[in-house]
Specification:
Distance between the termini: 21 Å
Order of helices and strands: EEHHHEEHEHEEEHEEHEHEHHHEH
Oligomer: single chain
Number of helices: 12
Strand content: 15-25%
């Protein structure tokens, strides 16, 4: 049973226990067994690794989208073998992670055969962190890059109105001496989930994160969420990367651009209906060397010049702590999850 700490109002539970509760929530709110299993593991993984903006915090958004009829929680992805190194998936208006799970065996087969393969997912909803999508490939010795676009909420550099999504990019590579190198970054100055958390906690944001509904710079997360918009990171550089994500995740896959879908007839819809692209590489084919050893040498050099923390290290430290001591959930949040699982 989960341990309760009355002094700090925290429940501590194992990964399996949290995933089980989340799975029950998804099942009770209209998903299939397969979708519930994939989404619950994804959310529990984010919470375990300290990515709270994509953990249990996201559950109300998932359920609201399901209840509105905007997303199909029982969609069965259709996997299409279209070329020697290319796989397409029609997610059927469902979530992207089950589509990835359905296509993964064929994708891996093609990578092992051709040395590189592409997976294009369309007609899909992605509402989670992107790093869980790529890290497993690196643990199999592969290099993986993924991009996904989202709903319009970012003003392109030099523009006056939002057009792009937060449009994250995730990358994972194996290394010989430790956990894979993994990063997951939004091309916006801040992730939308972090803005939502700041608003919920009553915190202001650093300057340069977003604008209000009049287009004026603001540090108030509520003003950004209430008709305002985010800015790209790094000015024109982040804006160019966001454009690239739109082209790869929507233009190439056949998914919607961030501005192409209209959820106005689905009150409560929160999940962007777009596309996702993966490029997965067998790295030893390119160098005729052991790539993991080469990446480990790069890590050694980075340490030598003073960079102590590698991409993904903070998540790995939190993961180890959570697996050893349990995942901590605020009591109020735990109570809400229990109600959702039972109702």
């Amino acid at each position: 049973m989960p341990a309760t700490h009355d002094n700090d109002q925290i429940h501590t539970l194992s990964f399996a226990e949290l995933a089980h509760v989340l799975r029950q929530i998804f099942l009770r709110h209209g998903t299939s067994e397969e979708v519930a299993s994939v989404l619950s593991e994804n959310c529990a993984s984010a919470e375990r690794d300290g990515s709270h903006s994509h953990g249990t915090f996201r559950i109300p958004g998932y359920l609201s989208s399901l209840a509105s009829g905007w997303v199909d929680g029982k969609a069965v992805p259709v996997v299409e073998d279209v070329a020697a190194a290319f796989v397409r998936v029609d997610a059927g208006g469902g979530f992207a992670q089950p589509a990835l799970a359905a296509a993964r065996p064929l994708l891996i087969e093609k990578v092992r055969s051709a040395g590189i393969a592409t997976l294009a997912i369309r007609n899909s909803h992605h509402f989670a962190a992107l790093w869980p999508d790529v890290e497993p490939f690196a643990r199999e010795g592969l290099v993986a890059l993924s991009v996904v676009n989202s709903m319009t909420c970012v003003v392109p550099h030099g523009a006056h109105k939002p057009l792009f999504g937060t449009n994250p990019i995730a990358f994972a590579a194996p290394r010989a001496g430790g956990d894979p190198l993994v990063f997951d970054l939004a091309t916006s100055a801040i992730a939308n989930g972090d803005v939502q958390i700041a608003a919920r906690e009553g915190r202001t944001l650093p300057a340069g994160m977003g604008v209000d509904r009049t287009g004026a710079p603001t540090q108030d997360p509520k003003a950004i969420l209430d008709g305002g918009a985010l800015l790209p990171f790094g000015g024109y550089k982040g804006s160019a990367l966001s454009m690239m994500v739109e082209l790869l995740a929507a233009g190439l896959t056949g998914g919607n651009f961030s501005f192409e879908f209209d959820w106005s007839r689905y009150p409560g819809a929160q999940t962007p209906w777009t596309g996702q692209l993966f490029i997965v590489i067998d790295p030893d084919r390119g160098s005729a060397q052991h790539f993991a050893e080469r990446s480990e040498e790069l890590v050694r050099q980075m340490h030598d010049v003073g960079q102590e923390r590698m991409p993904g290290d903070r998540r790995y430290l939190q993961r180890a702590k959570s697996l050893a001591q349990g995942i901590e959930i605020p009591q109020a949040e735990w109570a809400r999850l229990q109600v959702l699982a039972q109702g």
